[in-house]
Design goal:
Elements lengths: L1 H14 L3 E7 L10 E8 L8 E7 L8 H18 L22 H26 L13 H14 L8 H5 L8 E2 L1
Antiparallel strand pairs: 1-2, 2-3, 3-4
Helix pairs in contact: 2-3
Length: 183
Amino acid sequence: MASLGLAIQAMHQFYGVPHIVITSVSLAHPDHPDASLSVVGSTMTSSRRSRPFKIVFPAIDCYFSGTGDMFAALTVVRIREAVWNSPGLSETESWRSPDEVDALELPLAKACERVLASMHEVLTKTREAMGRAGVSVEVNGKGMSDDDKKKARLLKSKAAELRLVRHLDSLRLPKVQFHPARM
C-alpha cells in the first residue's frame, strides 16, 4: 500500500492527473480481511498533493465478464452525480475539490463508494444465478471430450455475463456497505 501511495503521488505531481482510481487491488495489509480486494483513489490538491483513500470489500470467487466496463460506466455517472451534489464544484477545473476537502469526503470517494455498492449487488446476484443454473465455477476437464469441454466453457462464459437489466434497482439505488478509509 505504501508504494501504491507513492505511485499515486507521482502521477499527481509529475503528470498533473487530477483524479486517479485503481481497481481490483489485491495487497495483503494488516487491516484487510482475507479474500478481499480494494479500490484505491485520489483527487489532487492545488499543489498536486494526493488525497488517497481506499475502499476494501470482499472478493467474490468467480469469473465475471464485463466488470471493467461496468466500473468505468458507473464511475462516469456517479462522479457527475457527486459533483452536482457539491455546490460550485461543477465550475472548477477538472472538478477538483478545494484543498480543505478531506479524502473521505471527496466526490471521487463518494462516487466509488456507490459504484462498488452497485457492482457488489450485481455480481452477487449474477453468482447466485449461475449456481441456480447449475453452472459450477470450475469446469472439470477430467473425463470430458474436447467438445464437451468447449460446451462447458461456453456455458460458463454465458452464465458469467453480468445480469444488469434484471437488477436495475442495484444500479439505481444500491445499499452502500463499503466505505472509504484513509490510506
